[in-house]
Fold these 2 entries.
Entry 1:
Amino acid sequence: MELSISGNALKTLSRSIICLARVGNELVVQASPTQLALHTLNASRSAYQCITFQSSFFDVYTVSGPQAHFSVLLKAVCSVLRTPLASIDHMSVQLPDHDASKVKWTLQCYSAVLCKNLDVACFRPVHNSMKKTYWITCNVEPDIQHLSLDRGRFPSTLVMHPRNLSKLLGNFQSSLQEITIIATDQTSFPSDAASEIGGKAVEFRSYVDPTKDGDSLLHTQLWIDPSEEFLQYTHAGDPVDITFSLKELKAFLAFCEGCEADIHLFFEKAGEPILMAPKFGLGDGSSSSFDATLVLATMLVSQLQEGIPAEPPEAANSTGGHAAEQVGSRPQERSRQNASEHPSDHTRVWSELSGTATKSVNGTEDRPQAQGQPDLDIHRIRNMEISKGGPVGDTAPAAPPKSQRPTQIDHAEGSRVRVQNQSFSQHHPSNWVDANEEEEDDDEGVEATPPHNEDY
Amino acid sequence: MSSSSSPAIEPDTPDLICQLDNVQGMVDALTCVRWKRHQDALVELSEHGIVLIVEESGCLQAKVYLQRELFTKYEYGAQGRPRFGISLGLLVDCLNTFSSPGHSNTIEIKYPGPDMELLLKSVDTLNSCIYSEIRTRIPETVTWDYNFEQAGIAPLTFTVKSAALKEAIDDLEWPGSSVQISLQKEPPCVIFRGEGHGDLQIDFMYYANTDLLLAFHCDTEVSYGYKYKFLKATTANIPGNVVRENRGSKLTIGRGGMLKVQHLVSVSKALAPQVESAGYQPPSRIAYIEFFVKPEEPAD
């Protein structure tokens, strides 16, 4: 495998590597004759990013055989791209053979000619006077994870300019880890309510882990009118909410802004993954020779049942939709109740996402069972399995999909039905980790090679 | 005044009184060799100027030459060449108090004071005076005062842009702890190579009319390894404005692989006296920095 790249394409590739490096530690490279795919998965297996480049994206692109693949540490690739792009004439990447132990990355750099006659520096590239050659240790048998979600299956979408989304997120405190997006039907407001609230059908809300001591934390809620802030907004029916990590979203925002693309978010409901993709101006994907997707797991438990109404309160009218700080004893009480009732308020991890992908590819039901249990080394997870022996046993007699549908239809009747719904979603305690363990996994990410689930 | 003092004792004239009109230039020069927070320096005074020497682990030595032409006044009255030890960090921090951005101050340096101190004093401020005394030490003997010898008949040397050299050495931090420097005759090329958990090789090709490798002399191909941390010390602390001047840094490989790295730091007035001559620096207004790096013992 050999490729060569220069100019604006090199800038895009560099931007892609930087974004991938903020998601995971290991980069999986798959090269087929028609395209190059870069994947990464974070240590807690809750974020997956894939960026693909068509062969026409590169100056030179050669793949001998049907496919070539390897994995390298992303921080090593970032060392290659430490050299200022302006001084790079072109970069080439070579995998000598299918069982090579190192990948060769070569940078040919410019030097400037000093026109001494003019007593001033005329910087123009003449020779590649400096060459940097990196040999990066690689693994030619990487644990390749695939996750392809059909964008059409998501009932809710929104598109906006990344700069605008960054401004909206700027209203939240910089240390915020997770955020909740609540989507409501834009047409469901009564005419008088619409005039009062101003049609703000979307809410951004800071998420605070109810298991933490949250008395001193800042809560921020932001109500947004899609017609003013979004380029496109699709949602129908009852309100849905998704809670996910901000860190990867911000990395992806920077990527979309650098590519001069809008950001496209696809989501369904709490517990289901959220998908992000760049949306290019001149037709989606038709004008670019590369594409990217970021998939994030979301919190299993819906924030809509915490008792905080999705509709903005009366007090928000006076602020005209600006960020409102609201800390009340009632929401905290409900949060505590929620904590006691649902100690497993966690984010669904990769294996569930993989299960979802597998099922959706096969065209089966939307709520699949996990295919086996991942071998996670986290001790607390094992304790959870021990303490939840009963629920684990309950997973064997899985409810048939037909019986789930009446439950979903009846969910409007009251919170009891919703509680029952939650009990279904918690049948796989070994498939998730809580926020603290996510942080622990981030620490584990410092290891040279993050552990992988051999089953996948 | 001599009549008022004890008639039996004549007042001593100081070994050195000198005045400098650009403190920042001196600070920049001394900062180049400041690779640790606490460093003991040896200062030697002579009729030709001031030399400051620092060293590390017997493997790295750095010298700053401040020739007398840098000073607006240089009165040398010592017998022999006085030497004293001083804390480099303390000296740089003291000098920094005499320099303010956008303003050129003149300071007077005197040695020795009544108790063998180094005395610094501002001399051109109208309404105030900054004065400091820095305690000196009896100098420890330098463990090695290398007499740099050239490797062969002709010196093996190359000159490269300081910014490019610094970038290359920064990049070489990634692979590992040792760097091999090779001079190659055909094609004319300087190769830096580091190996570890990854490998990195940086080639500086020599072409005429380019300003990357400004000079290249090599009649024998040589290759020596150096510890990365010592090599990094030769470029890591050059102030940004000095790097931006983008003068050449000269590297010479001597007998046994001793590496000499030379930088030039301008110590002229902040404002050029004439616009026409702004691009030209008289040689006497430049401080010379030299590093000597011992090679690693080749593992057989």
Entry 2:
Amino acid sequence: MGKSFLAALLLASCSAFAAGTANAETLRMAYGTAPVSADPYPYSDTQTGSLSEHVFEMLVGLDDTPLLATGWAWESDNAIVFNLREGVNFSSGAPFTARDVVYSMCRMMYRVDGRANVVTSALGPVTDVVAIDDHTVRFETTAPYPIITQKLKFLKILSAEAAGIAGDITFDRDGDCGIVDSYPSQADFDTGSAAIGTGPYIYESFQATGDANLLRNDNYWGELPEWDRVEIRSVPNNGARIAGLLAGDYDVVERPSAEDLQVIERDPNFAYSTVPGLQTIFIVLDTNADGAAGVTAADGSAPLADVRVRQALSMAIDRQAITERLFAGNATVANQFAPSYMPGAPKMPDLATDLDAAKALLAEAGYADGFELELNVPADRYTNGQLVAQAITQYWTRLGVKVILRTEPWSVFQTRRTEGQMGVFMYGWGHPQGAAQLISGAFAQRNDDLGLGAANYSSYDNPVFEDAMQAWAVEVDPARSNELVAQAMAQAVADLPGIPLYYNHELWAHRAGLQLVGGAEGRTVAMMVKSN
Amino acid sequence: MSAIKRLSGPSRIDPFLVPFRHYPAAIAGLVGICVFTLAAILAPLIAPQNPFDQGQLDIMNGLLPPMSEMMDGSVSLLGTDAVGRDILSAVLYGMRTSLLVAIVAVSIGMVVGVVLGLVAVMRGGWVDAVIMRAVDLTVSFPGVLLALMLLAVFGSGVDKVILALAIGIWAQNARMVRAVGLSEMKKDYIAAARIGGLGDLRIMFHFLLPNAISPVLVLMPMAISGAIVAEATLSFLGVGVPITEPSLGLLISNGNDYLLSGRWWISVVPGLVLVLMVLSINVVADRLRDHANPYLQARG
Amino acid sequence: MINFVLRRLGQSAILLVIMSLLVFVGMYVVSDPVAVMAGEDATAADRAALAAAYGLDQPLPVQYLTFLANIVQGDFGTSFVYGRPVLDLIFERLPATLEVVFLAMVLGLAFGIPMGIFSGLNRRKPATRLISMITTIGYSIPNFWQALLFILVFAVWLRVLPATGRGPTTDFLGLQLSLFNAEGLRYMLLPAANLAVALICMQTRLARSGTQEVMYQDYMMFARAKGIAPRRLIGRHLLRNILIPIVTITALELGTLIAFSTVTETVFSWPGIGKLLLDSIYRSDRPVVVAYMILITLMFVLINLAADIIYAVLDPRIRYS
């Protein structure tokens, strides 16, 4: 790196001097999970997303605001038109046009080695993408597909010109588009040659270990970020990450534990920033009348098929105690399956906590002597997940249910869950894709055409809920859509095919002298950090 | 201190204690082992709380510093962890788990290792080759993967951890027994026994076993302390005992998240207990090993 | 000698095949890569396509034979997680592990052997008891806890060393090493020390018991009686003789350190191959794990062989037939 790095630094500091807004400083950030690649397409994890958002941008911002699109409107039930921002250039110098959107959609739909990309499945209903002119693009879908704007938040825009495409591109649904050979490989992104976006940063280096260095893109169309260089390191061990902050190795670390915030609070040299997040942590209950994996009652019946049992399980849990004791207030008690502070989310009344009433319900359902269940929890996935799991185990044991708590690494958990070996499991859901994302995926009956129920392990099947979800899936009017979500949500909360626990907050710890305004989606990006 | 004088000392001393005379550290270790074992055995009687009974725990009692009053009015001498486990009780029960896992794993590993090692010696040829290559395999097979395999297939549990550890231990014992056995086989008395018409089994158990087992027995305490640490490491890596029945290792690793914020008791108490326990065993193990070494003994 | 080497290599080839089979089956049992790789909204068709693309829809024996056939052609496969050839991944990270193990080895030998010889020669001195105390304690602390305490003391309280990660690297014979610049070295110190503690303890003990045994051998008695200067006695006679067990065990230990310094690398976020192995096991990245274990087993085989040969060179009485 030596010389080129020095040159870049020199250049960056000169331009910083000229602009007069930024200082020639490096921002060092530590991620909690290693980004897998600089390729923004195949991986859907938060950190890979965080990293690539420095370099690539989408039509719609994660917070639903216009980004590379300035506005959009439904032209008909089956077509939505986006107006694109003018005067935007890629870091290669090529101007951003509608062609790049078509190209990126082609790449998104194309499965390298059969592997779907972040939203390949979700954008399946898109039949055509047409560049009407340089700055207008139309998406056509098989049926009304209102949540397309939610899904397009994950379409990072690549440069067609940088990929060597000269003429117009004709979209097709499998992403072939006649330009398969032009798609950059993952290695092309990782070495930086293909990593050309419109974002505020460009890659200096990326390593497979998840470490990356970024340099500011001084030709960025928007507000220039303050830091002309960003170093991102991956430190999965919680304690080591916060220790790195305290030792001065990093300026910003993501996801400090609630416990570590105590240290931060006491030390004037450090501060933290928090924002209520999008992730709902809940427990899925398999309501199948034929019984659920790992759930056994003395009489061989299926306790979880009885709504009273599910309500009893829910009422036995003191959510307030969990958020206060285990999260020191850095989580919000959940009363439904989407944070109530999310735009467009319904607002259900609080769920009751009453151990005696819960016991009575359980007895009423015929399980006065309890029953046995296996509670499955991923060990390494959710903040304080193991503590919460133990708290739930305490509550349910007191209710009279015999709980076997099974924690295992994510890969093992995911495998057994997919194979249907779990009747009761803890899960978290929260991408910035609207308030119905969880219930439509986890509780609706499976319907690949409408994009419903892809992860329904609850065997939940309620006609009122079903009708509302199916209507919602094709409703393009936002107000009506919200009403349908509220209907479905009310039904789900009444029937409890799962038990909502809490909404996670996103946390960052940083050195004093920085101001950090994070988004609810929990991305850790240099653009949100400013010095005081 | 000459060996002659030592050996001709008062005969009332239990021969088992002979190696420890004049070694205060080793005696301290011996006392330590007794105390820890006793505490582990008596844990259900002396622990103020049963930390394995989830119904007795309450997160509202979480993170109390030592000498705090819990919600039921009792005093937690060494504080509590995040889910309200009384650390004193948890450490007592954790010791139980740690010791049980280590002793059972080492015992299984020893028996299997000694038998297979002896079989390898007696049979030789392809049997020997197969056993020894199996040893090579298990020695280089990553313990984490093994533990994870057992966890994925059978769920978490103390028995799976024991199995995972025992699989690592048998191989070392088999190797050692084979080495000793082979050198023994070359000796004249074995040949004499053969000529005398003694069967393989008899030779194996009457002649080879007594000779081959002494290095194994001498190293047993070391193996036990090693197994305690190995179990702790597996728990740290998330493939150890169930989190509702924590061993010392799991307590330490859970407590680490609280070290920075000054809640030292959650990690330091089980940590110190584990280190002291392993230290006691190691000191005694060292002494036994040195004592068994003829070079050192002769000039003790 | 050549015969001996050839026979060992032959046996080792079989060993490698069995190891690969065990790890292959092991990873299969642990988790399903498709379940891990497929997104939450993946349809059944998505999953099927994914499985087909990686050959995971085939029966396990077919998958394994395909894998073996590829290896014979020098293709170790492509990582499920990183989408890159596994050998690239492993060799990219190997220097990080090698350099930290190297530094730990140096620390271990530099402290362990002198301390051991001193203890062996001066059995009754207080310093010897202190050394013995320290080494026993060093043996007794779980490595992961020691690592966390190191971070707590040196990075958080004293703030003299970085807590985690690898420092800047410089190019050395084509390898990216952080060993040769001060800042890089600072990052290496804690992980290397964490590995070194066990090594120091081990080598102190080996050197001590070796010294004790050798000092009372007849030839040493004779040499002492002859009035050979102590310096020469230690340098020439003692060291040469105690080195045999130290070399053997250190060589074995070297292999273990390179292959399985997973805990240290994980706690210190050191981007070496041990961390790669652990991450890959947890992420269901079977190609990486299997290839890794094949290479590691091969390394053990070679190290054992080398140790035996060195052993023969150091001790002329040993001859392999």
